[in-house]
Amino acid sequence: MAQFVPRQVFPHYGAIPRSYFLGHHRAGLSKMKNMLSSIDYVVECRDYRAPVTSINPMFEEALGKKRRLVVYTKRDLGSIPQSPARQVIERKVRSFDPTSAVFFVSTSTRADVAQIIKHLRNDAEAPDKLVGCRVMVVGMPNVGKSTLINHLRNHGVGKAKALKTGGQPGITRKIASPVKIIERENGSHVYVLDTPGVFMPYVADAENMLKLALCGCVKDAVISPVTLVDYLLYKVNLHDTQAYKRWSEPTNEVMPLLESFAQQTGLLGKGGVPNIDGAALHFIQKWRAGELGRFMLDDLDEEQRRRDDPEQTARLSMSQALKIERTTRKNKSDVNSNSSL
Ligand SMILES: Nc1nc2c(ncn2[C@@H]2O[C@H](COP(=O)(O)OP(=O)(O)OP(=O)(O)O)[C@@H](O)[C@H]2O)c(=O)[nH]1
Description:
The chain is of the alpha/beta class.
């Protein structure tokens, strides 16, 4: 039998939407900016599996001057504990942010959460001891902000879950009331404020949009789940062609894979026809649960080369991104009003 050769390039970036900047993202960001004078510290959450792509430059622009630390969440889904690969990944990612304190966290691992509490206990001070130190937690939608706060509170002051969490983006829509996570004898306690996840106005690179959608930063209805599985299959094959062997031989073809997956998991519609979209969503959930391998979506070496190259193309500025988002929205509403004539 001929040896299986995974695709080295993903061929279908064509019609992928590039924007997911919702009303509550815009409103949330503007409220965060307005509150900044009462905030002493910022914790910025990014997704471990896409440590570069899940950076939202809007936070740099809006909150960049505050003392801050960076937390890469969902560590358990991006690498294997104690593996040499984990050490290499974390050394590289840390080197991208030399001026910030950086933590890698799986919220179910107490030691990961404990190190953040320890750091904040030493580092998060406020000018006014009576008011205490106010820490704002920011990040892309669904990156794990509320879950992190619940675990910080549990570890820091032994209290139960305070915030609602969920598998889809947009559970937190407003800036929440402060939650105490550290008590100090001198009364200068540390409080954290949860914020709504904020997406960027426009994602210039379609591949980045696919990565963010796979990580769950975008609602599942925004990009076709079959396209997402096709991209996921491309990535899984580069990592481990045996990861889905329960359902299929190694393949580059998404439809036969989904048909076989639907048959074997009982995702069938009328007359026993495979429910392809349902199967695609279920397959994505398997990856999000770590059942199709634990690996990175971003290529860290490529990012290093990009950073080392003075000729590199500059990233889209925020004002450019906002302009494109406005034009896309206007074009869409023109099309809608023309089609209703
Ligand atoms: N495996 C794993 N899942 C996590 C981790 N942290 C959070 N999650 C899951 O990620 C999902 C999103 O978590 P939330 O805390 O609701 O995310 P959020 O950033 O507050 O989301 P928004 O409300 O959209 O801003 C939930 O299903 C969590 O259980 C982690 O470290 N590991």
